[in-house]
Design a protein that fits this description.
The protein has 389 residues and is α+β, with helices and mostly antiparallel strands. The chain has 14 helices and 12 strands. β6 and β7 form a beta hairpin. Bound molecules: protoporphyrin IX containing FE (HEM).
């Protein structure tokens, strides 16, 4: 049985976190981690119980006396009731979009990206497929012009890396500067009034007329999260999915033979090796999780990656089952902070799978792949593959 240690930035864990997470879930499912000064929660049922109870478990750290910079106040960092207005504004804006049309455009874009690289002995999934596809889908959804990928990607990476600021303090300041940079870009989008369609136009035209400065700040910051968070999570999800499939020719073959499994496969790939490893909440009073006492003001880290492989919830959890039934995984979170972009993300994943399964040749790894040294976002820095026969 593997030792009971979980060092998320350790190269072996970055490469394959699942044995360490399984050991935690089996031996100490609610586990105090000194380095992270947090309780690690690894069972599916315990993660859901915490996410369900937002009165006791706060996302908004101001509720436990921590100062949160104004630039970080968004749908992601507020709790109900403060969160309700901005969350429903963006959810309604998403519902108003024509997602089947977005999916069709994503499929065309995905096929074109594959056609550009399919003669090469090797290409990088991340730089040449996942990142450009994600950027175009997210910009299409928001209804904004695509910024240059090379310029935007470094700011996005700095924000993604700053999510591990609790483990490595040096990541915080570059993340703060990158947030400022992207807030300026998003503010310029809000100043443009001419765009006829897209999610941001819906948000701009449906923001209540009497909204004060604070609400307008939440809206702009949330638009930034949709843009940058949507792009980086989507890129990571596509990379992880294609990595899983490249290693499994039989799964690719099944997608070719049975197109009806594509929607379920898009879900299962997120459960199997999703990009968001977990989230955190802070106890607003003394409480318990899984029978373990949690004192007020302590942080709990809910490890979705562990919960998504919990055998109590998922039969054969370490197997990729493209037609898995009752797949209520936590890859998109749960409850009041669950992913707002889920339907768009699934559309993009299906589009990528469709482009892949209709391509004449299958995807094969050419290696070596390299993971990003990141604890919160599971993603690749470089993922070399080929489509050559
Ligand atoms: C496959 C791709 C994606 C995955 C796996 C994913 C996953 C997640 C997860 C797990 C959360 C909850 C985090 C928490 O509880 O702390 C989340 C939140 C969020 N996601 Fe996604 N996401 C994806 C793509 C997107 C896209 C494309 C967008 C927007 C275009 C988006 C927008 C958001 C927003 C705004 C939130 C914050 C919601 C809130 O806190 O109320 N996501 N996502």
């Amino acid at each position: 049985m593997p030792a009971l240690t979980y060092e998320p930035l350790d190269p072996a864990t970055v490469n394959d976190p699942y044995p360490a997470l399984a050991a935690l879930r089996e031996q100490s499912p609610v586990h105090w981690h000194d380095g992270m000064s947090s309780w690690l929660v690894t069972r599916y049922a315990d993660c859901v119980a915490v996410l369900r109870d937002h009165t006791v478990f706060a996302r908004d750290r101001r509720r436990t006396g921590t100062t949160v910079p104004a630039a970080s106040l968004s749908v992601q960092s507020l709790d109900p009731p403060d969160q309700a207005g901005v969350r429903s504004l963006f959810m309604n804006a998403l519902r108003a979009q024509d997602l089947p049309a977005l999916e069709a455009r994503a499929r065309t874009r995905a096929a074109a990206l594959l056609a550009e690289v399919d003669r090469r002995p090797t290409f990088d999934v991340m730089a040449e497929f996942a990142a450009p596809l994600s950027l175009s889908v997210v910009c299409d959804l928001l209804g904004v012009a695509e910024p240059l990928l090379a310029e935007f990607a470094s700011a996005s990476d700095a924000i993604m890396r700053s999510m591990d600021g609790g483990l490595e303090g040096a990541r915080i300041e570059p993340g703060r500067r990158a947030r400022e940079e992207l807030t300026a870009l998003v503010t310029s989008w809000f100043a443009e009034t001419g765009r006829p369609s897209g999610l941001l136009t819906h948000v701009r035209t449906h923001t209540p007329p009497g909204a004060g400065e604070a609400e307008e700040l939440f809206v702009r910051n949330t638009a930034r999260v949709m843009f940058q968070g949507g792009y980086s999570t989507m890129t990571a999800a596509l990379g992880n999915a294609l990595h899983t499939l490249a290693a499994r020719p039989e799964a690719q073959e099944r997608l070719r033979r049975e197109p009806q499994v594509v929607p379920g496969a898009a879900e299962e790939l997120v459960r199997f090796d999703g990009p968001v490893q977990g989230t955190s909440r802070t106890a607003t009073r003394d409480t318990t999780v899984g029978g373990i006492p949690i004192p007020a003001a302590d942080t709990v880290v809910l490890l979705f990656a562990a919960a998504n492989r919990d055998p109590a919830q998922f039969p054969a959890p370490h197997q990729l089952l493209l037609d898995r039934r009752h797949n209520r995984h936590l890859g998109y979170g749960w409850g009041t902070h669950s992913c707002i972009g889920t339907r768009a993300a699934q559309a993009c994943l299906r589009a990528a799978l469709d482009a892949l399964r209709t391509h004449p040749t299958p995807l094969r790894p050419t290696g070596p792949a390299r993971r990003q040294p990141s604890a919160t976002m599971r993603t690749f820095a470089c993922l070399p593959v080929t489509l050559r026969p």
